[in-house]
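Appendix B. Raw example, untouched.
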Amino acid sequence: MITLDLPTTPYWLTLPRGVRVEIRPVTTAVMAAAQAASARRLSALRAAEPELDPDMARGLAFAFLVKALARHAVTAWEGIGDTSGKPLPLSPEAIERLMDLDDIAAAFWDRATSPVVAVATEGNA
């Protein structure tokens, strides 16, 4: 038996470097939207670069997925500033730039998807 105790309201994740993001729960719809956006982006890149290295394609597919998930899930943030230290407003472009930082992207993915992974693991026990 599984316990359906997934978050139903936005919640905060603490990420490296003093960054916090508020995200909406990663539901099937949010993940499917991220997967669709990632697939479109990778498809366009492959059309433009038919000789794209397969390892790079796999890496880009994951990077695109993390960025798309963040764009669809992040609703607020703290600890993000411009070069003068002024808080940077939340925008899709700024979210993508944040997810270009490997440690941030890895922590975001792990923490944003952990409630779903926990339920899946419980169901497979």
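End of appendix B.
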